[in-house]
C-alpha cells in the first residue's frame, strides 16, 4: 500500500481528496494535517466521514510528514507548498500540489499575478503540469506534479483539439466561465455569504483572474504561438461545478459534425473526457461529484465562430479527482482507480 499525506485536509478540495483517497484500493491515509483543527478527528470536522476515516488531524511537521509518506498532496493557498516541495525533493518522495506554486514556469509571471515571492525556483523546471490527457508521459516520471486549476482544466480541455489542429485564430479566443461558490474555498468572506450569492449572478476578477496566465501558458504550448485570451469568470448560486463557454474564429469552414469527430478522435481512449453527441450540451449537474469533463462543439455558420461548451465539477476534475488521477499515473495503475463512478443526480 502507498502511504499518502494530505496537507490542508479541511479545505473543500482537501476534504474531497480525503474522501476519494479513503476508497482507493492502493492507498493508506497516513497523515492528515490542518492548521485550524489539529487534534480533532477528521469526522469531528466533517461528520460525513464518521465510521469511514478515523485519522486525527495533525499539525504540520514538514520533515516528519515527508518521512512518513510516499506521496504528499498539498491543498493549500499559493505560497505555502514551496517549503514542502523542497523537503519532498530532499527526501526523494513525490508531491502533487493542488495549489498554484508550480503551475507557472516563469517566475516573474507567478510573482506578478500572485504577489508572492517564489522561494523554490530551482524546482520549477522539474515540475510537470498535471493535466493527464495532455502530459501523461511526463507525469509518469515526475517528482512534483502541479495539479491544474479548475478554470484552466475546463478551458484547456475545451480548446486543445482546435489549437492542436490549427482550426481557430488564437487571437480571437474568449472564455466566459461560471463557477459554483465552493471554488472560492471554505474561508469566510462577504463575497460568498449566503445572502450575497443566493438569487445573484455576478462577474468577478474581470481581466485580473489569476488563472489567466496558467491558461495562456498551456494554450501557447498547444498552439506553438503566443496566446492572450479574454477570460471572465462568474460566480453562480450553486455549490459546485464550472461551465465554460468558449468562442473563437474558425480558420476554415467546417460543420459541427466534422468538428465533433475531430474532438472524438483527439480524446479517443480518454476515460474522463466525454464528447457529447449533437444536440446534447454539457451541464454542471451532469458532472457533479464525478471526474468527468463533458464537451460539445458547435459551429455558427453565420459568424464563422466556433462555440465550445465545457463542464466539470470544480472540486473533482478541477481539483481532488484530477489529483487522484495524477496519483494513478504516478503509480502506473488504471487512471480510473478510486474514481470509477458517475456523478450524483439530482
Automatic annotation (TrEMBL):
Annotated compartments: Cytoplasm
SUPFAM superfamilies: Glyceraldehyde-3-phosphate dehydrogenase-like, C-terminal domain, NAD(P)-binding Rossmann-fold domains
Keywords for this protein: Amino-acid biosynthesis, Arginine biosynthesis, Cytoplasm, NADP, Oxidoreductase
GO CC annotation terms, alphabetical: cytoplasm
One function term, GO molecular function aspect: NADP+ binding
Active site feature: 150
Pfam families: Semialdhyde_dh (PF01118), Semialdhyde_dhC_1 (PF22698)
Pathway annotation from the record: Amino-acid biosynthesis; L-arginine biosynthesis; N(2)-acetyl-L-ornithine from L-glutamate: step 3/4
Domain Semialdehyde dehydrogenase NAD-binding residue range list: 3-142
Substrates-to-products reaction catalysed: N-acetyl-L-glutamate 5-semialdehyde + phosphate + NADP(+) = N-acetyl-L-glutamyl 5-phosphate + NADPH + H(+)
Primary localization: cytoplasm
Role according to the record: Catalyzes the NADPH-dependent reduction of N-acetyl-5-glutamyl phosphate to yield N-acetyl-L-glutamate 5-semialdehyde.
Descriptive protein name: N-acetyl-gamma-glutamyl-phosphate reductase
Amino acid at each position: 500500500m502507498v502511504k499518502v499525506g494530505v496537507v490542508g485536509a479541511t479545505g473543500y478540495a482537501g476534504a474531497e481528496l480525503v474522501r476519494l483517497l479513503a476508497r482507493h484500493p492502493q492507498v493508506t491515509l497516513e497523515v492528515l494535517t490542518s492548521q485550524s483543527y489539529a487534534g480533532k478527528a477528521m469526522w469531528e470536522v466533517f461528520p460525513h466521514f464518521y465510521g469511514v476515516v478515523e485519522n486525527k488531524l495533525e499539525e504540520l511537521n514538514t520533515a516528519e510528514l515527508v518521512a512518513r509518506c510516499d506521496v504528499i498532496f498539498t491543498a493549500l493557498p499559493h505560497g505555502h507548498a514551496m517549503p514542502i516541495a523542497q523537503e519532498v525533493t530532499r527526501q526523494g518522495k513525490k508531491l502533487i500540489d493542488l495549489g498554484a506554486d508550480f503551475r507557472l514556469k516563469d517566475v516573474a509571471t507567478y510573482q506578478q499575478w500572485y504577489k508572492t515571492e517564489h522561494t523554490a525556483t530551482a524546482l520549477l523546471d522539474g515540475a510537470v503540469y498535471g493535466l493527464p490527457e495532455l502530459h501523461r508521459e511526463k507525469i509518469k516520471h515526475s517528482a512534483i506534479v502541479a495539479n491544474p486549476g479548475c478554470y484552466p482544466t475546463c478551458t484547456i480541455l475545451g480548446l486543445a483539439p482546435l489549437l492542436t489542429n490549427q482550426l481557430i485564430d488564437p487571437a480571437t479566443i474568449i472564455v466566459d466561465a461560471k463557477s459554483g461558490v465552493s471554488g472560492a474555498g471554505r474561508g469566510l468572506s462577504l463575497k460568498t455569504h449566503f445572502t450575497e450569492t443566493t438569487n445573484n449572478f455576478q462577474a468577478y476578477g474581470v481581466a485580473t483572474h489569476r488563472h489567466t496566465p496558467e491558461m495562456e501558458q498551456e494554450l501557447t504550448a498547444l498552439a506553438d504561438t503566443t496566446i492572450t485570451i479574454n477570460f471572465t469568470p462568474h460566480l453562480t448560486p450553486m455549490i459546485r461545478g464550472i461551465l465554460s463557454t468558449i468562442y473563437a474564429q474558425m480558420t476554415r469552414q467546417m460543420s459541427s459534425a466534422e468538428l465533433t469527430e475531430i474532438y472524438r478522435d483527439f480524446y479517443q481512449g480518454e476515460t474522463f473526457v466525454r464528447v457529447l453527441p449533437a444536440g446534447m450540451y454539457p451541464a454542471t449537474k451532469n458532472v457533479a461529484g464525478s471526474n468527468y469533463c463533458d464537451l460539445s462543439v458547435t459551429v455558427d455558420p453565420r459568424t464563422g465562430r466556433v462555440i465550445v461548451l465545457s463542464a466539470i465539477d470544480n472540486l473533482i476534475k478541477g481539483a481532488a479527482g484530477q489529483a487522484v488521477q495524477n496519483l494513478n499515473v504516478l503509480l502506473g495503475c488504471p487512471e480510473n482507480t478510486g474514481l470509477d463512478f458517475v456523478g450524483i443526480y439530482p
